[in-house]
UniProtKB/TrEMBL annotation:
Gene3D superfamilies: Homeodomain-like, Jelly Rolls. It comes from Clostridium porci. PANTHER family: ARAC-FAMILY TRANSCRIPTIONAL REGULATOR, HTH-TYPE TRANSCRIPTIONAL REGULATOR EXSA. This is AraC family transcriptional regulator. One of its GO terms (molecular function) is sequence-specific DNA binding. Keywords: DNA-binding, Transcription, Transcription regulation. Residues 178-276 form the HTH araC/xylS-type domain. InterPro entries: AraC-bd (IPR003313), Homeodomain-like_sf (IPR009057), HTH-like (IPR037923), HTH_AraC (IPR018060), RmlC-like_jellyroll (IPR014710), Tscrpt_reg_AraC-type_HTH (IPR020449).
């Protein structure tokens, strides 16, 4: 499940902060996310399951009750397992710097467990405000955000200070491109094309292709295929599903087409890959 509550007009909070989006997300399968970075700060509230964040050369374990702050331009990725899928609410915001002791690391991990009974309802209320946009939702969201940060700062060791925006005005907002990547991650077994992405995010197809390539070094459709092939390899290694069943579950039109694409990508057929993986498990991961 992944939703983006994007804000055409950023919600102001604090002295200069601007909330860009709120996204509740729950992983539904084993997943190692592609490392990426943004020109804005992200704040993750882990509300269920377990997982990890890769930040630069570190792997940080997280579980329900933890929060993570990742500063602008810091490469990071999220991972989860199907046995205890990670669930979080992420806030993207700009015009504000988060200051903490180990600033060189680019991230801050803290806990909100002692304030969970207060913070969880605030997150629910914030999602309701930005998704429904009732009258005075901006003022309400401002108050919720201010209280959220007060609660976090009271029990953690970081501070906030105003900053200048880093986004380039002639480029689409990075969070929209990040949303496209996450949408593909969560829907790669379904029909996904550029027309669909453009209608959901409000960008032209050309802008999506150019910006996605700039951010991730691959086109969105090729990224979609990479996700499908990664899942195919996993299913071939770990299940007894037939090639036809795997092809259908991943959105390929037929088993023959899937086999042709797989062989072109991997150099061997799906059946050969499965046999090889079972003979030499460590070589096929």
């Amino acid at each position: 499940m992944y939703e983006l509550f994007d804000l055409n007009e950023a919600i102001l909070f604090g002295e200069s902060g601007r909330l860009l989006y709120v996204s509740p997300f729950k992983f539904e399968r084993d997943w190692n996310g592609m490392r990426h970075s943004h020109d804005f700060t992200e704040l993750f509230f882990c509300v269920g399951g377990k997982g990890s964040f890769s930040v630069r050369d570190q792997s940080i374990s997280v579980e329900a009750g933890d929060f993570m702050i990742v500063n602008p331009t810091i490469e990071h990725g999220e991972s989860s397992t199907a046995s205890a899928p990670l669930e979080y609410v992420v806030l993207g915001f700009s015009h504000i710097n988060v200051l903490f002791h180990d600033a060189a690391s680019g991230y801050y991990k803290g806990s909100f467990r002692s304030q969970s009974s207060l913070i969880r309802p605030l997150l629910t209320a914030l999602i309701q405000e930005v998704s429904g946009k009732p009258d005075s939702y901006q003022a309400a969201s401002n108050s919720i955000l201010t209280l959220l940060f007060i609660l976090l700062i009271q029990q953690s060791h970081f501070q906030l200070e105003p900053s200048a925006p880093a986004l380039q005005p002639d480029q689409p907002s990075d969070h929209k491109i990040s949303w496209i990547r996450q949408y593909i991650d969560d829907n790669f077994t379904k029909t996904v094309n550029l027309d669909l992405l453009a209608s959901k995010i409000g960008l032209t197809k050309y802008s999506i292709i150019r910006s996605f390539n700039r951010a991730y070094g691959i086109s969105p459709i090729n990224y979609l295929l990479e996700r499908r092939f990664a899942e195919a390899r996993f299913l071939l290694r770990t299940t007894d599903n037939t090639v036809r069943q795997i092809a259908e579950s991943l959105g390929f039109g037929s088993a023959n087409y899937f086999s042709q694409c797989f062989q072109k990508k991997e150099g061997i057929t799906p059946t050969q890959y499965r046999e090889q993986a079972r003979r030499h498990p460590s070589d096929s991961v």
